[in-house]
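Cross-posting from the modeling subforum.

Setting up a comparison between two proteins and wanted a second pair of eyes on the formatting. Protein 1 (sequence, then structure tokens):
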Amino acid sequence: MAKRKTVKGEDYGDIYENLALLAQEKGISGEILAEKIKYAIEKSLKSNLHFDDDEEDFVIVNIDIEKKIFDVSIMKEVIEVVDTLYEPEKEIVLEEAIKIDPKAEVGSRVKCPIDTKLFKRIAAKNAKDLIKQGFSNAERQHLSEIWGQYENEAVSALVTKIEPKTLHATLEINKNEVILLRNEQIPGETLEVGQVIKVYISGVSKEYKEGEKNQYLKVSRTDKWLIKRLFELECPEIYDGTVEIKAVSRVPGSRSKIAVKSNDPNVDALGACIGPQKSRINAVTKEVKGEKVDVVMYCEDDEEFIKQALKPADVINVIITNPNPDKRSCKVIVPDNQLSLAIGNKGQNAWLAAKLTGYKVDIKAESAVRPEDYETVPLEVPEPDTEASPEAEGTE
């Protein structure tokens, strides 16, 4: 069967329709998509025709997806006659130039449309690669613009692909593909294609630059603040500020602790987070694949807060051994039969309490306490600035 010939003035509507659908699918505006294609074609032509970078206006590309315009032209220099140094890609003889522009003269430039077959022959491969790069840049820009406002928030994502070897997951968020790295997945978790999960957006590129390599949307299921966002979704009292989450600590896939306080004396912060028949806390636990979550009361008094943070263990006494902000530490005295519970499996309960409170926690059984355990370091008072202030200088 003979190949179908391309007729001059043929309707390229299908091309424009496909581009419009692509823009819609990727969530990218048609204008941005057209700009990326325009940039790719201009760069490819300049490279193939050996134009210098500063000769920007010698390649003209006009693309409008909505109006179905796709024009590619070269501004060729008018020469008097063909000579041995004639470059047909860049030059046109006066006789031919006058047919395009009757006012053409030697030394001027004439806008010469490029035949699509010629363009395909000299530049299509490079342009294709550049257009693909342009699409990637446009997608990164779209992510920056759309999701920048949602940094530090939790969103729903559809699992579309799992890499067999690395187990990295490809997610779809607002029609955009995002990679969830294996080390950002909950330990022991097995994701499946078609599964909808909650992810925490822990990093977003806020500024877009053409060709920038480090544009990214970083998502995580191990970030401790995912726990906070999940409770906000389940608890209206947290979402509206009646109950406040003051601190979070987490061992992903194993256990988390959150410290909460109520800003309304009539609202029980613990009860609000746990919910009727544990419905709210169970919903959070289910989303993080059975990870145990402890909800404890936040207290302004550090000693009381440390006691709360070590629950479910009972605490006899807390001694703040070093109150200085950068070296905060304490000794915690517990009944002998509560020592293992206070420390937790592999020290997990003590570690979570330390991260929750900001104190280094040393737990001791009541029978093992010695007088030196009660020794404390005084709070360091910053030395006053001995240099005279500018206002004081010159004062008699």
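Protein 2 (same layout):
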Amino acid sequence: METVNMPPQEGKKNMKPRLITAAVYLVAWVALCAMKWVVPQGYGALGFDVLFCAISVLGSMEFIRAIGGISFPQRAFTIAFAAVVVPLNVVVQMTMQAGLLAVVVAFVVYVMFLMATSVFDPIRSTVKGTISCVFCMLYCGILSAVLSSINHLGNNSMAAILVLFMATVLCDTGAFVFGSLLKRWLPWKLSPKLSPNKTVIGAIGGIIGGIIGGILAYLIIGPLGTGVWGGYNGIELYFPSDRIAPIVTFILVGIATAVMAQIGDLFESAIKRECGIKDMGKLLPGHGGVLDRFDSMLYCSVVVLLVFGTIIA
């Protein structure tokens, strides 16, 4: 997402819808954070769950359309799983604290049905199509469920959401700024075969952006949050370890998130290159499809859940 080679007029034309979409995205994110803070008993988190469920379903539809050659039964089972997985995770997590276990069981069941389509309809429902659908369920469905698990952590869920969103967004911003301003003097390509416009200096800028995102997330939920949030509705920083300072942890998470975000972005580029398409969709003007916007966040979700769900829980 650093820069694209295009005529100046076309670049300016594409920048306006991109900025509008980014502004709407920011307003929606702030509104969802406010809902999570204000609405009691964990029900405020459901706003983010709706977003994650939409990412799962719309992302799966984009992926299947891009891959092609998927039969109707295979599409039906894959999209059905994408629609069920986040609500299932949320309900089981809020009632029995075993959301991801339910997700794994549901995944196994749906994969068995997918394999059955290849057995009973081998001409249209190919094994290659089944493998593509299983990957789609993992990439779009399971990782969206991981996002919802972050949203329902017993401790530090707001902190995890903040660092996830802020590190990925500022990583993109840092990569774009550094890549645009410095690539003339530091032109080394990061991955020329997958994304010719991405540079090493842009990747460094992305990591710096991730660090800034981690620091800002800490300031919002830590010192500032102590006074503003006041621990209301469980929105506070819980950090039991005294071996490392909380801000250092947030910086390290910001770095890891920025690195994973860029790997996820390059992986998405590999998928689009394999499919011979420029964007996964057209739903978000200036950005492409849902996966074009949220690919980095999906890829980073496991890292954030691991840190905030286990290491500092």
